[in-house]
Amino acid sequence: MNKHITVAAAPLLSLLLWSHLVVAQPDAVARYADKAVALLEDAISRETVHGQGNVPAYAESLRDVFLAAGFPAASIRIIPYGETASLIVRYAGDGSSGRQPILLSSHMDVVPAKADDWLRHPFELQEDDTFFYGRGVLDNKFDVSILTTLFVWLKESGFIPHRDLVIAFTGDEESFQETVQQLIGEHRDLIDAEYALIVDGGGGVLNDAGKAIQFQVGFAEKTYATFSMTAKNPGGHSSMPRADNAIYDIARAIQQLEAHQFPFEANEITLTYFERTAPLLNNDVGEAMARLVMDPNDVEAITILRAQPEYIGTLGTTCIPTMLSGGHAENALPRAITATVNCRIFPGHTPGDILRELQLIADNPRLEWQVIGVPVSSPASGFNPEIMEAIATALDPIHPGLPIVPEMGSGTTDGAYFRAAGIPSYSLTGIFINPKDSFAHGLNERVPKASVETSLRFWRTMIDELAGDAKR
Ligand SMILES: [Zn+2]
């Protein structure tokens, strides 16, 4: 990976012109920021969780926004898939650069949220001085709203790209990720691109003082794989207990999993990430990163980093029990107990390797194992100077000189599928957030309000750099 990002003179010039333009039009950014927030408010009110059938109506409401901005009906496609759908919007370029399109991808669905557990209602956009709150406000409706607003802004300002820009909003990223597979398998012509910018994950990192310390770009992802292990038992009446019990079997296996430590692993992306992050943290965690880069056998450094939930995924494979089910009556011995184990597999291992390791850890040949879904392994995307330069240019008016750090995601975005299909994919967003405030998938999910305007400025420059006159 190239560590030195050179910004050529021509883009620098366009950057100067562009920053002047932004300064001259603060109202435009503010106006479109209001629009993005209105879209976000509507989006949060829609409970687009798996199985509720609410994604198609969300896609239709977004389609209306694109139509109202002047996008021809033929350039917008809603592609149904079961109870959900994808939305594709093509921003036609003049083709003058002869280059393949750029794909911009986010997802419209969210993970479930129980209103009773939240301080605020999860499906109502709420705010305080610093944050917006709501399910999906960070993952990923913020970026859906930003990209939609961005296309409207570009269209209304008469922008004509020199290559097509394609938005793909998928509809089940948080569950089975079948909509992205449908797009790749059946509608490749609609989404084919030189590369994809996955606007989900990555982005600006704030420290505890609220200062931007780095900008992350996802180049690779761990393999997401879920396994179930089931203990079966003849059962019987609870007044006549047997020595063996399916709950005991599963409890024992889970305790063994708890005690197991998958080995520490590193690759070029994770070591570069630690190397560039270490000097920015200025604490014992940063020190541990620096030590680890010097000596990957530094056990103490590994222990310090493993204690940090935001970094543990970068250190190797993780597997964790996430669900339990079983039993059929309070006065009956259980006939079957199933534990679900979710793994994030470090590149270089197959789900089959990890399943075998789990079976060894559980150490009970009577347990029955299953792979849930179809895990997808994807290669790391290659270094792309054009994208890295555009990011540097787009960040310059916002946070000049901010280090741009390659990242390996521990979660799975649709990017894994695009990568596996041969479309290099890079995860990034205009959101700047302290990882400690990132409650994606959790309670009281939030996003800093300041990220609305930052994102619009960031993406407007990105598009100008990657598809505007500057590079023609
Ligand atoms: Zn997401």
Fold and architecture overview:
It is a single chain. The protein has 472 residues and is an alpha/beta fold. It folds into two domains: 9-221 and 377-471, 3-Layer(aba) Sandwich (Aminopeptidase), CATH 3.40.630; 223-372, Alpha-Beta Plaits (2-Layer Sandwich), CATH 3.30.70.360. Helix content is 37%, strand content 21%. It is built from 15 helices and 19 strands. The chain has helices at 9-24, 26-44, 55-68, 141-156, 178-186, 188-191, 246-259, 268-281, 284-294, 299-306, 309-312, 351-362, 385-395, 415-420, 450-467; strands spanning 76-81, 84-91, 102-107, 126-127, 131-133, 165-170, 195-198, 203-206, 212-221, 223-232, 236-237, 318-326, 332-333, 336-345, 368-372, 404-409, 425-427, 432-433, 446-448. It has a six-stranded mixed sheet with strand order 1-2-6-3-7-17, sandwiched between helices. The chain has a four-stranded mixed sheet with strand order 16-9-8-18, sandwiched between helices. A hairpin with a 2-residue loop joins strand 1 (76-81) and strand 2. Helix 9 (284-294) packs across helix 10. Bound molecules: zinc ion. The site of zinc ion has 6 residues, from loops.
Query: What characterizes the major β-sheet?
Result: 6 strands, mixed
Q: How large a portion of the residues is in β-strands, by DSSP E?
A: 15-25%
**Regarding CATH, which class of the largest domain?**
Alpha Beta
Number of helices: 15
The beta-strand count equals 19
Coarse shape: globular
> For the CA atoms, what is the radius of gyration?
24 Å
Q: Indicate the CATH topology of the largest domain.
A: Aminopeptidase
